[in-house]
Amino acid sequence: MNVAALPVTFGVCEAETSNIGSGEKVITERGPGGGRWKEGLGQARWAIGSGQALKSLEGFIKVTNRLL
Prior knowledge:
The chain is 56% helix and 0% strand. By secondary structure, it is an all-alpha fold. Helix 1 (2-9) crosses helix 2. GO terms for molecular function: glycosyltransferase activity.
């Protein structure tokens, strides 16, 4: 759920179109606080399932280690 909250709170889920997944439709239904929580959950599931979340985390760790 924490992973799903990030794109919702940062406004990533506000787009009317999406280029993630193949043939995925954007869920425009709004939930608590006016956020698109179902869309955020769908994006989080895609990121984890596709391996993109791990790839991004590894990149973050690599850059962070260079700064220290």
